Amino acid sequence: MNRTDRLYALVEELRACAPRRVSARELAALYEVSVRTIERDIGALQQAGVPIYADVGRGGGYTLDKSRTLPPLNFTPAEAVAVAITLARAGGSPFSRSARTALHKIVAAMSAGDGASARELAERIRFITPPDAGEPASVPAVLEEAVAARRVVRLGYVDAAGLETERDVEPVAFTAVSLRWYFIGWCRLRGEARVFRIDRVRRAALLEEPAPERRFEDLPPGPPDHIVQPLEFV
Asked: Which of 1.10.760.10, 2.30.30.520, 1.10.10.10, 1.10.520.10 is the CATH number of 141-215?
């Protein structure tokens, strides 16, 4: 069994045994690997967001929080690959880090056969990138938290003329044109709503101050030749 298959099998084994704890020695014997290998595998799963908890000492072991995991899903291999393609083309988008852990959870919850078929299909997908194309700018995690928690954020921002300013912004929303992402908020420095290009944000610090609730619909309208559509969640 290769490591990828073993990781998926570990999740399913812990889900089936929960809430009983399973020791690293039991898992090592089950998969015919060393205890140290199991510990490394568990660490990798935890870093990917799988809710595995460990108790040390006699009678300790690993367990999975069933309330925060998915049962086996009916995702087809093609559906899982479609999700992966969308994520691969969304570099620099808000919550992209969370999207990657979500994908890990989706694939981990698929049946072993479908998961293997999805991985085989993904091997036949290739992206062509120009050699001079830079990596898309990642959205600072602090901006994601500012929007989710509705807290004022302090930005170091460079405008189109290259001038850098520091300003406190009340977050409202993210928006995108093509694959370029923007952060919308009420700029206290200018006293009005402003749109900030994510790749021009040099620094971002979350403040303790809660931001007043501002709706996107209450902001000045965008360009008349553009249609603004909300994210379709379902």
From this structure: 2.30.30.520
